[in-house]
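Weekly puzzle thread! Below is a chain. First person to post its structure in token form gets bragging rights.
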Amino acid sequence: MSQNVSPPIQGELEAPNPLELFWEQNKRVVTFGLIAAAAALAIHYLIQYQGRRAQAERWSAFATATGLDKAYADLSDTWASVQSRLQQIDQMAAQNPNMAQSANFQRQMALSGFYQDLDAMQIADLDETVEATQADALKAIVSAGDDRAPLALWVLANRAYFANEFDEARSHVQALQKGYPEHFMVVESGFPVQWRDEVQKDDDAKESEDKADEKPEYVAPVAGSIASQMLARIDAEQKFRQDNPRFFEPTAPTSAETISIEFENAGTVKIKLFDQAVPNHAAKILELAKAEWWKGMRVHEIRREPQPNDFNRDVPDEIAFGWASTKDEDDRTKWVPGDVAEDHVIDWEESSLSHFPGTVAVEIAKAGRSQVERVVINGDDAAATTDGNRVIVGRVIEGLDVILEMVNGGFADATSVTIGRGKPEENYVVKSVTIE
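Winning reply:
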């Protein structure tokens, strides 16, 4: 039997709930506190957001000033070129099934060239990044004196270094050392960040070692700091340039005479000779020029980077003329090297001259001798591929643009485009040779 609960007596007061009583007494304080806490939290995150945004803007400005925002690799054009080349190879293979094996090889070379381009991109991007730096913006960052300033000084130093402004580069590094002695790039250590070359071993040592256990051995680290190493690099570069000026500034030709060659369908090129460095060659070249020996001959070959450059061949921009078979002859099938006249073959002359843009040289003859009939003029720097392989006889003093115009002219056949050298489509005829 359940127990009956007596109903409350009319007029009797019920005891209040403690929580309700607390709320009624403090609801204004509690509400204000909650609002204040929410506002404080919002302000806290707003301050954090504004701080992070300001920091992001500061470093974005730094990235723009240093050119880092330009350093992201865009492979779309490179890959599109590879795809186009692969399609050409597929079309060629479809038209001639017997070339299937050759087509596979060409596909591999096209892809290999793409991957080699990726490997080289880091170096190319470094040059582009340095060129994109904004000196005024970087100097403003240095003046601001915040945590970006040391890095801005470092970038300015490298910018000046790559521009061959070594005194300015040194002053930026010294400002970094003086103004920020505790910066990680300035603090001295026994093993600062640096590139270390691998120790070269002779063939006998290589064969005697167990290849499975072999570990690379590197040269000993150089103590100091990143900044001090930069100063040492600047000093070494300046000294090397002072000791070897011929590698960095073209030697001025010394001949009193100027040879003026007019090319039909192109323009006039003026040349002076190195009659002191290679006197025998200069004398023979001048003799042929006075006799207008090249008059009526055609530019028989132009050379430039192949398209597409699947093998990454380094082909300098050049023109070549002097084949006797091209004299007054437009039929390119009759253009052949032939033999050099015996009295135009001379002994090789050594010199310290280098292939800067506009260099005039002669091709090598048989048995290690030289000759003066066949002339090559390059439109860009060809030192890496050609120094030591030809005798340099002169330099273009006027009309380098004419040489480049001929270099960039059309080839007479499609094969020449892919190998980067061949007979020109246009007839560039030596119209006249005069001495001034």
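Puzzle host: Confirmed. Bonus trivia for everyone else. The chain has twelve helices and ten strands.
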